[in-house]
Recover the amino acids of this structure.
């Protein structure tokens, strides 16, 4: 039994490393982003990528789809995009006998990996079409509920600087993303590498290293990791520290946060920490794992108040201070 | 034993050893903390005590410090009794060896009997880690800083104990202080007017001052001193009455009007000066000195009331100018009264200081404050109307502060006042009317020859009797007497509530109030 588990952990880590290395052949830098996107995939979550245009958001998702043997869809969100364009619609068909009937035409959401590009450019109505799919892994249309293939993984991107003509994601939808990742602008060395790789006659190619079933197996492994109560308590304390109305709330949270993370925030911390523990060859979750995923798991769940916006306070600043202040349980 | 069980045993064994070391360390730390607080308090007390060497250091502070020390020591002991848990040991091991919550999680899994594959793998890995751990490295044995601080404070305490003046606990020192106090009292009496009561008081103090005096001798001396004080009090009351009557008689004379007013208002010295100015120049050095030798000799024993009666009679019978002889008699009576008041003041001072002093030394001395006082050693200490003793321990002030509202209460007063429960109504203290029991049955000094009606020679040995007398009103209002007397401190009667420091004076007044025979 123990040998099997040991091997399971080893396989998990090897596969993860393989995927990361393959993606790194195309994507320059952003190792943490790649790792966190993979973490989201294996923790059964969805990820929101935020970055200025041209930093490789879409390229990252495309490369991931290439590396993993998964069905990939891309939706370019625009203001005139309708929910039916995403979910699908019933169309009238005619059989050989000339009888007409409705048939559900599946939309692009029926894929394993969905790239929702510039998700904040669609109307809230269209954005909400993703809600059920992201949470329930199913789609309701024409009175029928259609289950989505597993794994179902949504990668949404949004541009933080072009705010005109956009519809910021409502809190309910933001909360459904496990992680929110920020892509930074590459440095000089990375730019050199990018230019070298992309301006030649032949761009680098990746090979498929992960199958659908393997991904599901890795997901099961990640979920099996035990979490001791003291560590879980630490995750809860971190979450509550970001709540302004909580007695455990941090002073910065009380000053700048309007609403703190929902219970999904704690779930995200633990799920992300489990994957992180496996990547560090541990079969248990440590407080260190919780800290490692705290920023991407909680930053989009902090709703800042006007004062924070006026003072240009970033949620990451508050979370870093919270992580510094919350002590690990001594026993 | 299965491998899982073995792993659990290994983990629990290591954690148990770590927990024991943690407990020992914590116990040392808590003991050090408790000792530090206690020793610090004692050192501070030693350092501060000299500043309060004159007795100003309140016992309340000492109690507060003692309570604080006891609280800290108790808290430390309570902490010591709490054993370190295995969870705490696991946390300490994780933190010390940077195990990233490995033992903490393993212990949690062990206690929950987690049977999952990952849980068992974690327990196995943690057991391997635990076997490599050395509890001595996790919890090194070292003296906690608090214990070191306690050691330093102990040295400081020893140093300060040698430096600070220690209170003398030897009875010899107490005895020396007692003798010194008695000597100062006797010196004070020697400066006073020549008076038989002061001489008897001095004699009693001499007995008390003597080192070899037995407790019985001391008690006898204390009783004599008390009698002398009481007699002085009674004489003073009579003197006040005589002063009041003399003043009233003088105000009936035009030339003595102003002096009489001064006397009435308590300005006795001023009144004397006025009278001396009225006296004839050839009267000699003063009216006090022009009296004959016999009059001079019996000054100490003569009741001021009798002298004043003669002077008042002269004043009343003088139809024209007041002659020199009458004026001298008036001066003489006022001086006698003044001496009586001075005697009473000194006797009262002696009693006050003796009671204060003996209260401090009552642990050793058979002559306690209560024995010196008149309450416990009264002839019949049982409160009863027949004995005239209405003093009750704990209820004295209430009983003696009670006065009747009016004549209608007389019928009830006799029975009510004697009740030990003390249910008679305590009204506002007034000097004008006193109907209470011990006013009716108060002490009154009468000369033996007057009692038998033989007109015996003045100056004979005074005999004391307890006689029932008729109640009546004091002629002199208390407020008027108050001006010239220290024992009745100001403000006592301005309010119905008697301040503690004036209660004795008020009590004495009501005990010794004297009324004229005609009332």
């Amino acid at each position: 039994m123990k040998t099997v588990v040991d091997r399971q952990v080893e396989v998990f880590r090897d596969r993860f490393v393989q995927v990361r290395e393959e993606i790194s052949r195309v994507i320059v830098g952003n190792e943490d982003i790649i790792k966190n996107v993979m973490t989201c995939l294996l923790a059964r979550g969805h990820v929101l990528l935020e970055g200025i245009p041209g930093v490789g958001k879409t390229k990252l998702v495309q490369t991931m789809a290439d590396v993993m043997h998964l069905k990939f869809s891309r939706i370019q969100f625009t203001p005139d995009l309708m929910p039916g364009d995403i979910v699908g619609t019933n169309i009238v068909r005619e059989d050989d006998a000339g009888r007409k009937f409705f048939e559900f035409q599946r939309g692009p959401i029926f894929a394993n990996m969905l790239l929702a590009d510039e998700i904040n450019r669609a109307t809230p109505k269209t954005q909400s079409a993703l809600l059920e799919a992201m949470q329930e892994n199913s789609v309701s249309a024409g009175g029928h509920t259609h289950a989505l293939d597993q794994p179902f993984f949504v990668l949404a991107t949004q541009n933080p600087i072009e705010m005109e003509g956009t519809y910021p994601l409502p809190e309910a939808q933001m909360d459904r993303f496990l992680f929110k990742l920020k892509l930074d602008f590459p440095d000089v060395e990375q730019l050199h590498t990018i230019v070298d790789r992309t301006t030649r006659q032949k761009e680098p190619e990746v090979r498929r290293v992960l199958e659908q079933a393997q991904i599901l197996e890795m997901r099961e492994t990640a979920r099996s990791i035990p979490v001791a109560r003291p560590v879980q308590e630490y995750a809860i304390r971190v979450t509550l520290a970001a709540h302004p109305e909580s007695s455990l709330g941090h002073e910065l949270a009380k000053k700048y946060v309007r609403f703190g993370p929902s219970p999904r925030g704690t779930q995200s911390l633990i799920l992300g920490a489990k994957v992180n523990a496996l990547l560090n060859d541990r079969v248990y979750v440590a407080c260190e794992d919780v800290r490692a995923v705290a920023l991407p798991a909680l930053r989009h769940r902090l709703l800042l108040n006007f004062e924070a916006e006026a003072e240009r306070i970033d949620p990451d600043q508050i979370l870093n201070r919270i992580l510094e202040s919350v002590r690990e349980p001594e026993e | 034993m299965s491998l899982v069980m073995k792993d659990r045993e290994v983990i629990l064994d290591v954690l148990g050893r770590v927990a024991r070391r943690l407990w020992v360390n914590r116990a040392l730390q808590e003991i050090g903390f408790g000792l530090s607080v206690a020793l610090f308090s004692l050192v501070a007390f030693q350092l501060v005590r000299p500043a309060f060497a004159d007795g100003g250091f309140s016992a309340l502070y000492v109690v507060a410090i003692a309570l604080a020390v006891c609280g800290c020591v108790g808290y430390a002991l309570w902490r010591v009794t709490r054993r370190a848990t295995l969870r705490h040991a696991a946390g300490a091991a994780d933190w010390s060896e940077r195990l990233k919550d490995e033992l903490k999680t393993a212990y949690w899994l062990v206690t929950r009997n987690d049977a999952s594959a990952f849980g068992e793998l974690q327990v196995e890995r943690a057991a391997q880690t635990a076997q490599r751990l050395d509890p001595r490295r996790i919890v090194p044995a070292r003296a906690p800083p608090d214990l070191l601080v306690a050691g330093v404070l102990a040295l400081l305490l020893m140093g300060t104990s040698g430096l600070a003046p220690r209170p003398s606990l030897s009875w010899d020192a107490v005895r020396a202080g007692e003798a010194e106090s008695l000597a100062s009292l006797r010196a004070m009496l020697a400066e006073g007017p020549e008076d038989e009561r002061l001489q008897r008081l001095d004699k009693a103090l001499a007995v008390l001052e003597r080192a070899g005096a037995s407790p019985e001798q001391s008690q006898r001396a204390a009783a004599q001193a008390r009698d002398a004080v009481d007699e002085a009090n009674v004489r003073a009351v009579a003197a006040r009455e005589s002063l009041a009557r003399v003043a009233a008689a003088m105000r009936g004379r035009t030339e003595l009007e102003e002096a009489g007013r001064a006397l009435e208002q308590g300005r006795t010295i001023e009144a004397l000066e006025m009278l001396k100015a009225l006296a004839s120049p050839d009267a000699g050095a003063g009216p006090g000195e022009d009296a004959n030798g016999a009059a001079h000799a019996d000054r100490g024993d003569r009741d001021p009331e009798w002298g004043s009666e003669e002077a008042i009679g002269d004043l009343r019978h003088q139809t024209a100018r007041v002659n020199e002889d009458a004026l001298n008699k008036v001066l003489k009576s006022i001086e006698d009264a003044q001496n009586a008041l001075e005697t009473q003041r000194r006797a009262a001072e002696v009693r006050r200081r003796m009671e204060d002093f003996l209260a401090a030394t009552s642990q050793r001395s058979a002559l306690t404050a209560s024995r010196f006082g008149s309450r416990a050693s009264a002839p019949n200490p049982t409160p009863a109307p027949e004995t005239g003793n209405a003093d009750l321990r704990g209820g004295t002030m209430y009983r003696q502060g009670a006065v009747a509202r009016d004549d209608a209460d007389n019928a009830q007063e006799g029975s009510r006042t004697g009740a030990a429960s003390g249910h008679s109504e305590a009204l506002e203290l007034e000097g004008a009317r006193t109907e209470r029991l011990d006013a009716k049955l108060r002490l009154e000094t009468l000369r033996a020859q007057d009692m038998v009606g033989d007109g015996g020679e003045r100056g004979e040995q005074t005999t004391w009797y307890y006689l029932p007398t008729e109640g009546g009103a004091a002629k002199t209002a208390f407020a008027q007497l108050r001006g010239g007397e220290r024992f009745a401190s100001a403000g006592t009667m301005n309010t119905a509530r008697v301040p503690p420091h004036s209660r004795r004076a008020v009590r004495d007044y009501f005990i010794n109030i004297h009324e004229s025979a005609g009332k």
Notes: The mean pLDDT of chain B is 67.
